[in-house]
Amino acid sequence: MNYSKKDIENLDRVTRLKIINSVTGIKPANLIGTINNNGQTNLAIFSSVVHLGSDPALLGFITRPQTEDVGHTIRNIQENQVYTINHIHPEFIKNAHYTSGKFESEISEFDRCHLTEDYIHNFKAPFVKESHFKMGLRFKETLNISNGTTLVVGEIEQLILPDHALLNGDIDLEATNSVGISGLNSYYSLKKIDSYPYVRLPEVPEF
């Protein structure tokens, strides 16, 4: 099967969304928790979280173009400068998936999707109690992209993960039981296949 640019443009909207959201392969499935100045919490699923640097520890994620119904996450982050990123685990995939609904701002997805707010180390933004791999971030900057989306950049201030998931300085994502996502609605378990050393040129094998 071969799709040209014109073929892609002629696809119906939902089919195009599903296909183009899948072409990058399996992505991390995360819930981003925020709170506004009135104490109203928000929780939304994202599959666009990416590593941007380790020193300082920066992560980014992409938000859709803002409308009256969409954009509560970034508005809350800009108000309070903090947010949480929480891995999704098999026990609450269904709950996490439905946070993608366009709920009104006064409705907390924590309540509507039956997930639990958790406040750790006096960090203002809510973590997801059901997640055992989570991060608290402080907002650093936004970068606008030509299609109307925005890259939100934050620095990790809190990192919480199971003790057994850290092996020889590496995080074993299979041990954390975190899940991945492809497209709009397909979820995958993560299985570790192998591990190799940090690459130094003199140690590259002859294939």
Strand-helix topology:
Blueprint: H1 5-10, H2 13-20, E1 27-28, E2 30-35, E3 41-46, E4 50-54, E5 57-63, H3 72-80, E6 82-87, H4 93-97, H5 109-112, E7 117-118, E8 127-128, E9 134-144, E10 150-160, E11 166-167, E12 170-171, H6 173-176, E13 179-182, E14 186-189
Antiparallel strand pairs: 1-13, 2-3, 2-6, 4-5, 5-10, 6-9, 7-8, 9-10, 11-12, 13-14
Describe it.
The chain has 207 residues and is α+β, with helices and mostly antiparallel strands. The chain is built from six helices and 14 strands. The strands form four sheets. The chain has a seven-stranded antiparallel β-sheet, covered by helices on one side. The chain starts with a helix and ends in an 18-residue tail after the last strand. The mean pLDDT is 93.
Q: Which oligomerization state do the chains in this entry correspond to?
A: single chain
Q: What characteristic shape results from the CA principal axes?
A: globular
Written as H for each helix and E for each strand, in order along the chain, the element string is: HHEEEEEHEHHEEEEEEHEE
Rounded mean pLDDT is 93
Percentage of β-strand residues: 25-35%
Largest sheet: 7 strands, antiparallel
Alpha-carbon Rg, integer: 18 Å
**What are the segments in which pLDDT stays under 50 over at least 5 consecutive residues?**
none
Supply the helix-strand structural class. Answer: alpha+beta
Largest beta sheet: strand ordering: 3-2-6-9-10-5-4
What share of residues is helical?
A: 10-25%
Number of strands: 14
Count of discrete alpha- or pi-helical segments spanning 4 or more residues: 6
**Alpha-carbon distance between the two ends:** 32 Å
